[in-house]
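Example complex used in Figure S2.
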Amino acid sequence: MSELKQELKEKIIEQLNLEDIAIDEIADTDPLFGEGLGLDSIDALELIVMLDKDYGIKLADPKEGRKIFESIDTMAGYISEHRSR
Amino acid sequence: MNGKAIFETDETDFSIFIKSAYEALHIDYSKFFKMDNLSKLAFMIADVLLKEDTEKDVALVLSNKASSLDTDRKHQQSISDSTNFYPSPSVFVYTLPNICLGEISIKHGLHSENAFLVFDKFNPSFMKDYTNSLLKEGNAKKVLCGWVNFDNGKYDAFLYVVANKGTFAHTTEELTRLYQTI
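Predicted assembly (267 residues):
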């Protein structure tokens, strides 16, 4: 699981172009939206594409993302349970 | 700016150049790196011109030749293979040239008139008439105008602010002369 969390941090920084944030600045429990990393609605869509492309997870309802994308912890937990690749 | 260089580099790679300029000009704006190349270029120059200006009634009138073609191509590539069909939402949102005007407006809190025009080349005569009309009709106190073009790694930009009182004469001849100095 810790390997997956590290991978997610790397992917988030690269795919969301967070050039001014380092991997070790993201704690596993940090909120990804709002006060935390400050991601926005376009980033949320980008994360939905990432789940599909990299882990074979299709979110039928984008509202599901709200809970899944709360933090690296919640993302890693959901991916571990539902991934097909 | 006004004939003086505010940042110099021999770097020819746009992504390295723009990041160096971002750091050198102390533009502290985390959303900057999410922008496409056209928006980065327009945003950075506009920031230099507007950051000391307290006037918020500033219309934006920019123009170019390539529209958003550079980003359109990236989007097109991501949808060209039906077996690997993963268009990026953050690329797609920049597939219009006027998005850069939104980025400038958000940063500087502008709720003003704006237009993005596509010409074959910088059109000082049209830009002058359009800008004068905005000022004359009272649609803005100032107008940030110019040319910002990005395509396939090549770019050029010439932005200027027009007001009722200024340093240079707002004529077709003067705009042509100033554009040719870049």
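The first strand of chain B starts at residue 58 and ends at 64. The two ends of chain B are 11 Å apart (CA to CA).
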